[in-house]
Design brief:
429 residues; Aspartate Aminotransferase, domain 1; Aspartate Aminotransferase, domain 2; 13 helices; alpha/beta; 7-stranded mixed beta sheet; binds pyridoxal-5'-phosphate; globular; 2 domains
Length: 429
Amino acid sequence: MNDADLVARRKATLGPTYQNFYDQPLHLVRGSGTKLWDVDGRQYIDCYNNVVSVGHCHPRVVEALCKQAATLNTHTRYLHAGIVELGEMLVARMPAAIDTCIFTCTGSEANDLATQIARHVTGNQGMVVTESSYHGVSELTRRLSTDSYPERDRPDWLAVIEPPNLYRGPWQRDDPTAAQKYLQQARSQLDLLEQRGHKPAAVMIDLVWDSNGPLVAPDDYLPGLCAEVRKRGGLVIADEVQAGYCRSGEHWWTSDVYGLKPDILTCGKPMGAGHPLAVMATKRAIIDAYSEQYHYFNTFGGNPVSAAVGKAVIDVIDSEGLLQNARETGAYLEAGLRELATRHDVIGDIQGRGLFWGLDMVTDQETRTAFSESQMRHLGSLIVEQGVITGTSGRYGQILKLRPPLVFSRTDADQTLAAIDSALRKLEL
Ligand SMILES: Cc1ncc(COP(=O)(O)O)c(C=O)c1O
């Protein structure tokens, strides 16, 4: 069967929501660490997939999964040590005061539950998110995902604030009062929310603003925003689906990078290194208040196989020093990217931390005109031709996104930088 046949069968059988990256879709058949291989045996460096946090098919994760799958897999209505141990391992790493976990399978479910809990315990209905946010696919989390539907369909309980983009946003790096101006804009959106009859139940923030960037907020912005929401009776939900699990290279959670003390923290993607595992973690008093009225049972969430995988992922991160690797290899990658920017005018800006970087691609440094979708697609194809897999994001789809597994090495970084360099040279010809 050739790729064209597979594409045709895929189109015939699956909904049009299944899209492929690249004009010539990659047909991957094997992965190991940071490497992927296609059906023709060609090797790629994976500089995009954070879900496989500890690398593709990590032997210890695979072993834990197989062993538990061959022993027992049920649900959480029976006593089993796995889910308790995973919960304990996570709580030991959580930001201050977060001491209780509820496991789900996806980040969407975790954010959906977080929103329901915040609404119940505060008695408020309003939710605060940023422009071009993404928080999931359930009915509720889709409404919180302002990048997923037209502005005119926004519910009146939603306050949408400007993310602190110091390159592309209304207030930029050269303005020392930028943080205050972003905060002021948030305050006015909160005022409008209240005028529409809704007090905030919570602000939900993706702490890397992945769908906008990644972005790095000015230091005093997030504490100010959280204080403002709390003053009006709302909770703080840190969506660490993208930002968590050592991605920043500084702490397990980006909440701790900013000194935030969220009331609820959600995570998903990296927790199972490819296995569907996610969590909604909060303070005991909050979940107790919710549980007085509601039950929550997630058929697959936290089952013995998922728990075994989740524990193995944490063990690998610790024993292989992957937080430190994210910091050190991330710094090395950053230095290389900044050097590239000195030679390629199409790199307008670089933002990120640890092993999550975004290059804001522009056709003109002065006007900051963003690369078009087709220019970004072309750039991605030129990079993949060099054997490196990258991604795109950003409000205009103009960000070249680098977000590799945490086992990314200096050699991987060198090859990635060389591939981007070569692609940009071809692009500029
Ligand atoms: C910041 C953020 N939150 C939530 C989600 C939803 O997670 P899931 O796809 O596991 O439902 C995503 C997924 O991309 C995400 O990036």
